[in-house]
Amino acid sequence: MIFSSFVNAQNKGFDKKLADSLGADQYGMKSYYLVILKKGKAEINDKAKKSELMKGHMENISKLAKDGKLIVAGPMLEKNQNDYSGIFILDAKTKEEAESLVLTDPSVKSGIFDVEIYKWYGSAALPLYLKSHDKVTKVHF
């Protein structure tokens, strides 16, 4: 384990029931899949069609979040040399499941976005922020 060289101090505030409900390991972490959305090969010049696909993209993000599969999503705010457009962090058991979840996105299916998918290790508590996010959102997409 990558953390084995650290001192193993017991956390007095540990909540076993919560940790178990979130699938946490002893470090409070779990595996997810990081999806990097990048500019795809499709050139869609029809503004109405592109708008429809992006609307579907946003609706799919909402659906995956409601289903507990999408933990984090967001666009890149700057152009970059890799043509990265945004990220997803998916709560999936396998890479195949992550791939199938990504393919529910019409903007990926259409080729607007290509994806790179990597197994990622992060806090098991990440899904908890979504409950607060809605409370700070004034306008939905």
Provide a quick synopsis of the model.
The protein has 141 residues and is of the alpha+beta class. The protein is 33% helix and 25% strand.
| Count of separate DSSP helical elements | 5
User: Regions with pLDDT < 50 over 5+ consecutive residues?
Assistant: none
Count of beta strands? 4
Secondary-structure-based class equals: alpha+beta
Topology-level CATH name: Alpha-Beta Plaits
Looking at this structure, what is the CATH superfamily?
Dimeric alpha+beta barrel
Could you describe the largest sheet, including whether it forms a barrel?
A: 4 strands, antiparallel
User: What's the alpha carbon Rg, rounded to whole Å?
Assistant: 18 Å
Structure description:
- This protein has 141 residues and is of the alpha+beta class.
- It has one domain: Alpha-Beta Plaits, CATH 3.30.70.1060.
- The chain contains 5 helices and 4 strands.
- The chain has a 4-stranded antiparallel β-sheet with strand order 2-3-1-4.
- The termini are far apart.
- The mean pLDDT is 91.
What characteristics describe this protein?
single chain, 141 residues, alpha+beta, Alpha-Beta Plaits, four-stranded antiparallel beta sheet, 5 helices, 33% helix, 25% strand, YCII, Dimeric_a/b-barrel
Secondary structure layout:
Layout: H1 16-22, E1 29-39, H2 47-66, E2 70-75, E3 84-90, H3 95-102, H4 106-109, E4 113-123, H5 129-136
Antiparallel strand pairs: 1-3, 1-4, 2-3
